[in-house]
Amino acid sequence: MSDCNEETTFLRRIPFYDASSESKRVEESIARAHRDCVCVRKAAEFAAVIVVVASVLTQAEFFQSKPNVRLWALCVVGLAALICLLTFLCVLVAYRVKLNRLRDECRNLVRNLVETRLTPTEPMLAVQAVA
To answer: CB–CB of 96/37 below 8 Å?
Structure first.
């Protein structure tokens, strides 16, 4: 598990200690963005595999021989997969930016939660040093 995933998992668990609607909204948004990010990453991996397979198959003698329709169809599939791969990568970057923004919001909520729980209710008395 990468550091980013570990931090996201950690940050998703902390707002459970805060019962506010804002915490629930952020937690649900992080879960949705993380799930969408994983889905897009899997789609990008699949498109990358299609691009590699298409590029390898274009070198095969079966696709180089007549009729040229087989080679043309394979090139179209490879090009379409390459376009999809680039699109998925752009969407993946957008989801990562969104996930980072939500993680920052979660950090702010955690900071506010810790500040409210650890802030003393009465002012601290100054300790006088005896000289």
So the answer is: yes
Residue from 36, 50, 8 nearest 93 by CA: 36
**pLDDT at position 125:** 54
| Predicted model pTM | 0.71
Answer for the pair 63, 78: CB distance below 8 angstroms, yes or no: no
Packed helices 69-118 and 3-13: angle between N→C axes, nearest 10 degrees:
50
Which parts of the chain fold into alpha helices (H)?
A: 3-13, 21-57, 61-64, 69-118
Residue 84 CA to residue 53 CA, distance in Å, equals: 15
Q: What are phi and psi of 58, to 5 degrees?
A: -65, -20
Least confident stretch, 44-48, 52-56, 61-65: 61-65
Q: Which tokens in the block code for residue 85?
A: 């791969």
Contact 12, 27 (CB under 8 A): yes
User: Residue 22 is encoded by which pair of tokens?
Assistant: 């804002």
**Which two three-digit tokens encode residue 125?**
């008395």
